[in-house]
Amino acid sequence: MNKLHKKFLLLFVFLIVIIFFIAHKPSKLHKGFPIPLTAIQSKIDYKH
Predict the structure, then answer these.
(1) Which of 5, 34, 39, 44 could form a disulfide with 24 if both were Cys (CB 3.0 to 4.6 A apart)?
(2) How far apart are CA 23 and CA 2, in angstroms?
(3) Distance (Å, rounded) from C-alpha 43 to C-alpha 48?
(4) How many C-alpha atoms does 15 have within 13 Å on its Cβ side?
């Protein structure tokens, strides 16, 4: 594996970590369910 492949792999792993662990917050309704930080809460209540 050459240096270019190693740098690409390292960048890919770094981006995955950023996307999945930093760009999300836990849901207030369902534990463990990720919500994007840019999500906007709807005022509509869907009751079944």
Answers:
(1) 34
(2) 31
(3) 16
(4) 6
Residue 48 has pLDDT above 70, yes or no: no
3-state secondary structure the chain: CCHHHHHHHHHHHHHHHHHHHHCEEECCCCCCCEEECCCCCCCCCCCC
7-26 burial, b at 16+ Cβ within 10 Å, e below that, comes to: eeeeeeeeeeeeeeeeeeee
Q: What does pTM read for this prediction?
A: 0.47
Length of the chain: 48
One-letter amino acid for residue 47 of the chain: K
Dihedral of the CA atoms 29, 32, 37, 40 (nearest 10)? -20
Would you state the structure tokens that stand for residue 7, as one six-digit string?
């740098």
